[in-house]
Amino acid sequence: MEQYRVLTKENRRYPVGITVMDKKLHVSVISSAETCSLVLFENGNEEPDIKIPMAPKDREGDVWNLTVEGKWPRGTMYCFEIDGCLRPDPCGRQFTGWEKWGDPENIKHVMKSPLYGENFDWEGDEAPDIPFHESIIYRCHVRGMTCHSSSKVRGKGTFRALMEKLPYIKGLGATAIELMPVNEFQEVLVQESEWNPRAPKKGPEPTGRLNYWGYTGGYYYAPKTSYSSGQRKRPVYELKTLVKEIHKAGMELIIELYFSGEESPASILDIVRFWVQEYHVDGIHLVGHGPADLIGRDPYLSRTKLFATTWQGVEAGNRKHLAEYHDGFLTDMRRVLKGDEDQIRPLMMRVSQNPDKYGVINYMANTNGFTMMDMVSYDRKHNEANGEDNRDGSDYNYSWNCGLEGPSKRKKLTAIRRKQIRNAMVLLFLSQATPLLLAGDEFGNSKSGNNNAYCQDNEISWLNWNQRKTNADIYEFAKYLIGFRKAHPVFHMEKKALNMDYMACGHPDVSFHGVKVWRPEYENFRRQLGILYCGDYGKKSDGSSDDYFFVMYNMHWENHEFGLPRLPKDRRWHVVIDTSLGGVNGHYETGQEPCLEDQKTYMVKERSIAVLTGKKYEVSKKKNKEAARDEKI
To answer: Given a cut of 70, is residue 12 above it in pLDDT?
Structure first.
């Protein structure tokens, strides 16, 4: 490596990490240490080729700065020596040393970063910019999506493999993908060895378990190297290509960023901006201890979807880009699903929630907790495989096993569980806020009752794609329901319903009913609710009005007859969805909805949801001819 020259006069503020400009390196690293040096490695050497001390006089607070001029060969790697120990750049853009997922030897390697980054052609990449009321989110884990042998993709468990699943996700009807942490993190869980005064202190020892989810402090400026495919790891290229392909498919990408609370608010803001600017991600889900108030007010992020538990105290601005993301919908709607007392008002609130200033993310299942299939198959968590004596994970799952704990081949029990899953899908996709579907729930994925599979990098967490066939009915119903939601704007209005007839069309935009029309009942023992949607308040893309819909929820374990609201004279009630109808998988295809003979009442079976559509009634040509002939006679 050629001689270098430190340029003290050019030391000024640069972005943290390494900035390469011509022959100059600008280095900024945050450390409270007493000494700090830049260490360079040439041609893959394990031993340093050169060490360049950083002068204390060029330190600003805890930020060490260095500008150095020289000729640096391609392939040069770097890290830092901090107080005599080699340390990776906390702001490195890519790393070597952790190429193999889950390898215990990783913790022994000194992670180094390439001095030069790769050029990437975004090819005029543009974000789809889909509003919340038109969004449907599909949440998945990069490894878990494709690690199972049934995934039938190349490079299983990588960004490249996920790209092969984009047509499937698009075909399901999703408009956005949410990925669990994709930044570099240490998945090998370690424990410090006990100190023995008569023996040298050992370093951290692997526990034999993994942090599969990635909720841990990490290296926030680099994609995870082990999530890239092939022998020559190119995580930056693969992740950017994935983003570009997602955008080409007309979808968006949202990534989770977990913060432990040790990071400064200013650093977190820089990290969030970095992922939006450098990787073109469309949204950030803040998990852990992120400063939501600071990020929510940032003008650079005012057109980026931002998710957090709450945005209380943050002015939303003119653009609706902030969204609340928490278990509120899950908790209330699971209680509705299993028929708990006093749930009519929560049902009304959750189905209708659609604030004007911010979005709300609804889900019936998420990574932390039971899947939809486990929600109807287990009363209790079964986390024994985690090695913590089943003490970990929440004891509150609001689930019902339908009469037997765990999987069963009993036809009657299976039918009840299938119906409950259809009910859960209707609760999710016919609610006004943005729905989120946990990957695999569309075909009955199970984690065998494990509600905290954070350390399970195996078939407990991986999606078994064979279930697309064995649970084809669940998949078809989920796909149908997503398409149904998209086709009918009354179920995903841009603004909150006013429950008023402000267009003077004869009906409120949305109205609530009990088993008797216009008489909702709120007693604690009630488990029935009807909701009427007036199609005139939902405009389709071609400018035409939507249909009328009447949704009847009967979460009681007995049948209940609902009175039906009167329709305009040119319309008749037709059955479009009834989750009790197992023979037609709970729904009728468009154009095949049967017209009710009795237009005044409809019997909703126990623990079922029915949806009627008020379609325009047209007399057939045959009947017209018969009527004309009768008039002549």
So the answer is: no
Q: Which stretch of 45-54, 90-99, 428-437 has the lowest confidence by average pLDDT?
A: 45-54
Nearest Cα neighbor of 272 from 290, 248, 288 is 290
Q: Quick one: tokens of 140? A: 């998945």
Pairwise CA distance, residues 18 & 92, whole Å = 8
Q: What is the pTM of this model?
A: 0.94
Write the pLDDT tens digit of every residue in 205-254.
888 899 999 999 899 999 999 999 998 899 999 999 999 999 999 999 99
Amino acid symbol at 294 = L
Query: Within a 10 A sphere around the Cβ of 28, how many other Cβ atoms?
Result: 22
Alpha carbon dihedral 307, 310, 314, 320, in 10-degree steps, equals 40
Bridge partners for 574 per DSSP: 595, 613
Helix (H, G, I), strand (E, B) or coil at 167: helix
Q: Return the closest-CA partner of residue 529 out of 502, 510, 508.
A: 510
Q: Which of 489, 509, 544 is the last residue of a domain?
A: 489
Is residue 286 within 8 A of residue 308, CB to CB? The reply is: yes
The CATH number of the domain holding residue 91 is: 2.60.40.10
338 pLDDT above the threshold of 80: yes
Bridge partners of residue 58, in order along the sequence: none
Strands (E), 423-559: 434-438, 510-513, 528-533, 548-554
Query: What pLDDT score was predicted for residue 201?
Result: 52
Same domain, 262 and 295: yes
Pairing of strands 608-616, 548-554: antiparallel
Residues forming beta bridges with residue 77, ordered by sequence position = 41, 114
User: What pLDDT band is residue 8 in, cutting at 50, 70 and 90?
Assistant: low
Mean pLDDT of 80-102: 95
Q: Are residues 508 and 437 in the same domain?
A: no
Nearest to 354 by CA among 427, 432, 430: 432
CA angle 353, 558, 590 (to 5 degrees): 55
Judged against a pLDDT cut of 90, whether residue 71 lies above it is answered with no
Question: What does the chain come to in residues?
Answer: 633
Question: Mind listing the pLDDT tens digit for each residue in 371-414?
Answer: 999 999 999 999 999 999 999 999 999 999 999 999 999 999 99
Q: Identify whether the C-beta of residue 296 lies closer than 8 Å to the C-beta of residue 320.
A: no
The pLDDT of residue 11 is above 80: no
CA-nearest of 91, 180, 262 to 457 is 180
- For residues 497 and 319, is the Cβ–Cβ distance under 8 A? no
Q: Which residue has the tokens 């402000």?
A: 502
Q: Determine the structural domain holding residue 278 and report its residue range.
A: 132-196+206-489
Neighbours of 223 (CB within 10 A): 27
How distant, in Å, are the alpha carbons of 5, 12, 58 from that of 9? 12, 8, 10
- Kindly state whether residues 19 and 144 are assigned to the same domain: no
* Mean pLDDT of the chain, nearest integer: 93
Comparing CA positions, the residue from 158, 184, 166 lying closest to residue 252 is 166
Q: Are 289 and 259 in contact (CB under 8 A)?
A: yes
End-to-end Cα distance, the chain: 108
Contact assessment for residue 550 and residue 578, using Cβ atoms and an 8 Å cutoff: no
306: β partners: 284, 322
Tokens coding 548: 């009328």
State both tokens at 437.
Answer: 């579907």
The number of distinct structural domains making up the chain is: 3
Query: 330 falls in which pLDDT band (50, 70, 90)?
Result: very high
pLDDT > 50? residue 625: no
Type of residue numbered 370: F
Separation of alpha carbons 388 and 574, rounded Å:
53
